Give the backbone structure.
Amino acid sequence: MTARLLDGRALATKIEDSLRAEVQTFAGMFRRRPRLIVVLVGDVAASASYVKSKQQAAARVGIDSDVIRVPAESQTADLVELVQAAAAGDHGPADGILVQLPLPAHVDAVAVLDAVPPHLDVDGFHPENAGLLSQGRPRFIPCTAAGVQRMILDAGLETAGRHAVIVGRSDIVGKPLALLLSAKGPGGDATVTLCHSRSADLADHCRRADILVAAVGRPNLVTAAMVKPGAAVIDVGINRIERDGRSRLVGDVDFDAVKEVAGWISPVPGGVGPLTVAMLLANTLLAAELSSR
Ligand code: NDP
């Protein structure tokens, strides 16, 4: 069997096309464009490149964006103050504020993220937004989890009554995705197993999945022997490895072997990554709409 490809890039382009039209309608009604502020701490190349692709995508759909760059040595209190100032409008109007992760190790990331007011929290990380999601009345859904669910819906994959296994329980990916897939309604109603580094018999859990999502950050964690024939395998992981003397991006799934067993598979790159960005744009437009009501 060769799995069908879950093409995140093509889906993200489709989402951007409809967002562009919605942004135009918004701009026509309110005589302004939505605006996103990104806080980038330090000069880690990967973070700078993610921020660049977010800005490029924003520009493609007509959302304004600005990046506040601060040195890696910035302290927690400085960053909290900066986020509060951005929220107060000191860096121009803001519909959404995003703090690019990861933050340097000496910074209290929770304190900085908590400083983003819930109505500007387009990443969906604030406890108020996490709480709303857990109660089944989401406002801003964390972008990667929303992107995975969108990928499942777009492929027409049934979730109701199916067994979804998610490997990875982070607050930004695994946990919100478990809430989404187990919530009532379209793209939900699944029975969810949430695995992590202390899960016993990980392979056994994975083999029972109709939908298997890997969100760990370990190349080749998911092998062909861990996949039920015909299952949908969605790879959130992003890992940089050296292969054949070149630096490459790979996911958590052994793609070449797993595609022979799975029914559906998402690639890395070109899978969940572009959808994460598309969902950020959707959240930014939603924030602008909510603040304009
Ligand atoms: P975290 O490091 O916050 O979480 C990783 C999770 O994996 C933890 O729950 C951890 O368990 C679990 N884990 C670690 N080792 C194992 C193991 N051997 N077996 C089972 N579970 C394990 O990562 P994130 O959620 O932030 O990101 C996960 C991956 O997704 C990364 O590669 C990241 O780069 C990528 N990512 C991709 C995005 C995209 O847009 N495509 C967006 C965000 C992240 P425990 O809780 O017990 O420590």
In short: The chain has two domains: 31-119, 143-273. The two ends are 51 Å apart (CA to CA). Residues 143-273 form a domain with the Rossmann fold fold (CATH 3.40.50.720). The longest strand covers residues 35-41.
